[in-house]
Amino acid sequence: MESGQPNSAAADKTQNSSVPPVEGVAGGGTSYGWVDGGLQASSLGNGAIDPTKIHSADLLHVWSMPSTANVSQQEAPRPLEHVNLLAARNERESFQIALRPKVSWATSGIAGSVQVQCTDLCSSAGDRLVVGQSVTLRHVVPMLGVPDALVPIDPLNSQINLLPGETSAIWVSLNVPCGQQPGLYEGEIFISAVRAEAESRGESLTKSERYQLYKELRNCIDITEPRDYSSSEEMVQRLTSASTTLRRMLALPSFQDCEENNGLGDMMDEDIMNNVAVRLKLSLTVWDFTLPLTPSLPAVFGISETVIEDRFCLEHGTKGWYDALDHHFRWLLQYRISPFFCRWGDSMRILAYTCPWPADHPKAKEYYSDPRLAAYAVPYAPILSSTDAAKNSLRREVEILKSEAHWSKSYFYLWDEPLNLEQYDVICSISNELRSYASDVRILTTYYCGPSGSELAPSTFEAFVKVPNVLRPHTQIFCTSEWVLGTREDLVKDIVAELRPDLGEEWWTYVCMGPSDPQPNWHLGMRGTQHRAVMWRVWKEGGTGFLYWGTNCYEKAMIPSAEICFRRGLPPGDGVLFYPGEVFSSSHEPVASTRLERILSGMQDIEYLKLYSSRYGREEGLALLEKTGVYLGPDRYALDHGPIDVMRGEVAIQEKESAYSTSGRGTMIASH
Amino acid sequence: MESGQPNSAAADKTQNSSVPPVEGVAGGGTSYGWVDGGLQASSLGNGAIDPTKIHSADLLHVWSMPSTANVSQQEAPRPLEHVNLLAARNERESFQIALRPKVSWATSGIAGSVQVQCTDLCSSAGDRLVVGQSVTLRHVVPMLGVPDALVPIDPLNSQINLLPGETSAIWVSLNVPCGQQPGLYEGEIFISAVRAEAESRGESLTKSERYQLYKELRNCIDITEPRDYSSSEEMVQRLTSASTTLRRMLALPSFQDCEENNGLGDMMDEDIMNNVAVRLKLSLTVWDFTLPLTPSLPAVFGISETVIEDRFCLEHGTKGWYDALDHHFRWLLQYRISPFFCRWGDSMRILAYTCPWPADHPKAKEYYSDPRLAAYAVPYAPILSSTDAAKNSLRREVEILKSEAHWSKSYFYLWDEPLNLEQYDVICSISNELRSYASDVRILTTYYCGPSGSELAPSTFEAFVKVPNVLRPHTQIFCTSEWVLGTREDLVKDIVAELRPDLGEEWWTYVCMGPSDPQPNWHLGMRGTQHRAVMWRVWKEGGTGFLYWGTNCYEKAMIPSAEICFRRGLPPGDGVLFYPGEVFSSSHEPVASTRLERILSGMQDIEYLKLYSSRYGREEGLALLEKTGVYLGPDRYALDHGPIDVMRGEVAIQEKESAYSTSGRGTMIASH
User: Where does the record place the region Disordered (chains A, B) (predicted)?
Assistant: First the structure.
């Protein structure tokens, strides 16, 4: 009978003999005592655990994880090791600190609180990366159970609550300014178990005690208040009465420890750090080269105007509306992203614009000239309401902008994924209008197939490849979905072969719902390297730009702190790269996702690859990507972090040697 | 090309036309505005949300779930409905309240706090089920990400923190005492969003303020203390000085709101409940019959003595050790479980005993006579050290016990799953010894296969079935693993056919590592009905008792609050039905798992089925189990809760009608 086979579950139960058991060799006693932390109550004292008196290493596990790891609540502890990072100037490098309680030291609900404190990172020459500015800490918060939201930790109150049996993670980012001196920077992060806030509160006054105190104080004031006293007796009586009242106040339980501490207070913070904190040593090598301020590859990302208006209850065109857009624009710029605001119309008509102010407004110059902006969308206002006023205003915009130096960064994005010849006709007619204003206008069109209803080509893929023939000269930026390629990188050459670079035509790509796992994309639940690989793919395939449809496209809500719901029909995380800060705290600062940080890392990787290729040629760059195992194709790329550091280290070392052999000075990759 | 097919992901993206969108019909705008809570900031006021001024229904979702639901953090909200429960006397019925924030109203880290308050349940006749005694609230806490631990909620401080985007659950249990009047009991549970503790703390005194206050009070006492005053002037001066100091104290920011509230304090709790709380109406019908105090089916469950000694750092035989065992014994009795303590020796030798005190100790009588105990293990001390003293003490134990009325509940459990004839020989030799002390001794032996090295039968299953032939008369309780049966219920008759009921032989069963999904067992991550179905299976198969190897068999630790780790090689949750309270709070009370509660429910279901069968016959009982869809076989049983209530309701109604037609009075199922 099959259930009697030795391979079955119950038979396995008795065959665990390689595990040295304490209690029995099998069955109920299996492997008891195998995982023995070695911690004993005697070392923690009896009864309640006082975290200020015990080394935090006895209370929690602390270990580091790379930025590409999704540290889940079930993540198992690893040994704590020195963290070594490498970064160029104008680069952000991140890693994570994972924390998991070994015991519970809080008295209710949570396992315990920890305080995380970080020193500045210092070089031997005395240069610094300052905590709060160049070094930031964020708490990794799950969305749909997947670690994703990075909620800033208040540097003045850096307490994190740990739950029993759950691993928590802190995201540490090092931002190296452009002017930072190269060299080795060292610092430490102290993680100390502390009494939970709710418990130290136990020591302070409860509401009722506080009110009692208030009444007694008022009473005492009535007693002692200056007046005409009838007699010495009255005064003695009043003094005695006041004294009694005061003694009663002092007897409140809340004042007990003031007595005991004799005013010396608790152990100083520094003593705690030295005596009981877990110390994580952190080294950062800052290379002697600088990532260009202007991203080499324009990555244009949409921000839904509609979502901002709804969630923050802002009326279009009001001051609050302009402030909110401005805030979002500037916040996203730090991610080497060129934002555009957007609003969808009928049939995927889209109004896309980078600057909410007209071209003659001082803010327009500030926006368009920002060196961190690699490309900007000029609003084609008539797309939504084709009035004369809208047309006139558009013509005026173009006339102002086309004379500016930044005009080469401009593009028009009119329609999202046109599907038929009718829609193509609209694009062509707008193009004719725009080219009458400026002959060198650039129109971007996204698509994943040829127009239906045309006999462009016998096969679907050929029809897709032939789109430039239909849209020329009405589109200059042919932006295609990576999903079309699937894992067939070789199809890239078919797409590129149809383009006319001599006419200024470019090939850009995008991801949205597709491609799906195992190809690179930014959906929640994909591997960290899979998120980062989107940009490796772009660089390897050779596109000259990238578009992403939405960064804040979660479901409609009319309250800033409303729960984030992903939209129906989209894979979780699609179109949502950051969250409103109000959901997590009283802060109005957007909360980045780990995916957005990995996009930044990918954008930085592109600069490394470009730097390397500029010295040794693109073929060598491709060889480096392949031989380090970072990226070989849409379904073959690094699953773990190791290869990434190898590749970056290789680029940096080559750069250092080459800079040393040629000029002996640091290199600036691009102008700024 | 395959990527151009209309069934692919990107094509789907444009075909979502059944969803009425607000923004565009497809693509980036897909379905925006489809899920619109309708909540608007205007109704919540601008800026920070004050939960005392807004109806909690605007701030969070509240809905009920049955006790067999595993309410995960991703559980989606449902409509809030009136909760209707049915219970006999001496029964516990439970359900869950699920909570999920719609918005965040706290200012840091969490979405917000809620307060859960429950009224007594009252009948129209004025009878009551009192909160805290008959009505309890516990917070469902995940273990390895699965909702399992039921951490008691302090009735005086019933605050739960909700996290953004996460569903939390509260386990509500109604315990109907034996003497409760039958009838309809009604009550309400009020769930109100409140300010988080950490925030109201902002209003109370900080440590430094408190210390300042302390110094000022001491100073003031010095000023006012009775003494011989040199003059009236001195007294006036002292009074003035005291008054000034007191005014300075009253000016502390912490006392500002005492002033403003003018002593009236906050809105009264009751007002909050009436005005802003979500109200969950709760009805319980208490039937006019009583579950027997003594479980009809003895379910003997192991408690590892070793685990208790290690985790609570108790030396064997000390007062603390006896207290801990006593505490565990009495705590488990409430689950209709007959506990035995156990310690494993070599080769699955096991020392099992229900009472840690010798038979002549007053506690022994208290333990063994407890009507809630259906069976008890008598320690066979020589199993671990076969000294003369141990043998003599054993003989004395048996001599005392065999004359007691409770002797019929006794059994010896000597060996866990003997595997070869050598081990069988040990059992036989002990049996010979024991039967020389008492001829009617009952020995329980667990097994899942025949002895290796014997030529008992040609097939594995036949060898298993023939075990009674080898162990007779050295075993009376043949306790076999459900895993052996697999889904072949029909094999039961083969097992039973080999037994000699005339010699007092019984068939019991057990589950441990096996059987695995989809069969019933108590592993973490199985469905709630799958947990409950273990007892349905036992009743349907007709075994007369049940054994479970361990209730506290987690990994070794030497600190009460150490993290719970499941043992290597065992499925998560196997052998662990409750947790040490110290892991979750300062309480020493064990924390039940949802699985333990479902075991109790299953044990209660057995009483319902037995009651029904005692009136209508076992065949009708089996038909009821089947026709309601509760349990048809090891891989066919209710996946959702509905059928359970139908079956229980049917039993109760039949019982009511039958009781009414015969005697008009309530029925007591069994003696106590």
Answer: 1-25
